[in-house]
Design brief:
alpha+beta, 6-stranded mixed β-sheet, 20 helices, 18 strands, 19% strand, flat
Length: 600
Amino acid sequence: MAIDLNRFIATFFDEAQEHLEAIEDRAMTLESGREDPEILNAIFRAAHSIKGGSGTFGFTQLAEATHVMETLFDDLRKGRGHADQGTVRLLLDACDVFKAHLARLKAGERRADASMDEIRGRIAAYRDARLGEGSPQPAASANEAPVEAQPQEERFFDTPGTAAPKEDAFGLFDDAPGAPAAAAPAAAAEKFGLFETPQPAARAEQQSSIRVSVEKIDRIVNLVGELVIAQAMMQQSVGQISRQEDEHLTHNLSTLDRNTRELQQAVMSIRMMPMEFVFSRFPRLVYDVSAQLGKKVQLRTSGHETELDKELIELLIDPLTHVVRNAIDHGIESPAERLARGKPESGTVGMRATHRGGSVIIEVSDDGRGIDRERIIAKARELGIHADESMGDEEVFEILFEAGFSTAKEVTNLSGRGVGMDVVRRNINALGGSVSISSAKGEGTVITIQLPLTLAVLDGMIVCVGDEQYIIPLEFVAEAFKPAAGDIKTIVNQASLVAVRGEHLPIVRLEDLVQLPASQAPRPEPLCLVVEVDNRRAALLVDSLIGQQQLVVKSLEANLHRVAGIAGATILGDGRVALILDVTAFTRNVGTRAAAKALA
């Protein structure tokens, strides 16, 4: 009876991707004459696992190529030659080809892939050349058949009536000679853990995690969010009843509230992933970029255990990639230049993640040449951007985020086109975060990115203007106060300013921001919320504060369309929809700190 292995195919793709990333990570630690036997063993095992799984599912080209890679590292770990930079480059190129091939297989493409034949040939030729340099070539095993290209389409062999591929050449099956061919898929599947073994008790003790699709987790998160909203509505509705009349009801409501919050936190924790998943992508990037630029760069990371929402992690990769490339290209000097300045020949790029309150702080640092503020000012003037020597360092560095700004003297595939830090800031702001720069000339630069822990839930300050309520993310609120009449200054053709302990901050009136219609009704004395984003501060004028609350975020862009100045929406306990303000947008449009301080 044919065995349907299609339901295991997604697991194979995930595991093969993980094995390739493990090969990349270990490959870059190989150097001539000092390779660690355990590293060679780890690469051998990863290639063997990919070979076994691909052979099981009938992905012949991938099985053949990884078989040749496995054989190469079997030779190396047995002392037949040594790994060098050529080995590392070959491994990285092979991983790129394998990843592209996996993507095609995942998309349903089963035709022969010429790049797979080419990389398999390169690995085989490299192995033959290394063995020809004086290392004795092992005798071919009696059970090992020569690997030949198979141009026919790759296909699953679990279709009824389809013969199983000849995977015994790769040693996939442990069946005795003469075993029925139909048993081969089942034997291979059991060998590589695709089916449960006959010892369920032992397997249960080893089981510490399971694979669950992201769609299922997102569905649970959404349902728990709706439950939290429904619970808040119930709490508010019952709150209108005199609770003294029914202490039992009050107790039950409190228990429901506590359990609902704990359930929400538990479900949200399922989507949290350690920053290790982000950091693991960058050793390869640093290796490739530094080699391309002829520089020596070490990558140091810390805070691997810091957790962040999976959705944020996926969207964070591109901005961080650009920041790290910038650090190597613009920050780290050439080896000769570093030696001339009394620095180590090899530069260092650091990546650190930490928790701070309800946010995750990610710092990307380098010990390179730092930022030349005079060069930035000169380039800004060429581009018609206001800049002068009286500006502080933070304001000068803000120019780097202007669209089209670049100080690169030449246009390369890495830099010089003026498309860079402005995109980084735009992408980070879209995630509800902020980015800032600090630098010391000749010593290095630090890019600091601040992100919320999750996009699904936020702690918000509920404010009121007129009859409407709005949400300000609490992480942006520095303080709240009621200004005296003399604290507010009005300047012709400029935003009004409010004095806050010797500093004058530009005022943003919430009623103007949301364009409420004019009303003749008397208004209460305004309150000021001091908000801070990207080291910019502003004073938001509101009618009153309702309170602080944890809220479930609903995306307007996913359900309707993007609205300028609005980051999302939430449902309050009374059932009303409240808009979440995009604090980043309006703080950037109200001037700078220096202009306000000048009036103090």
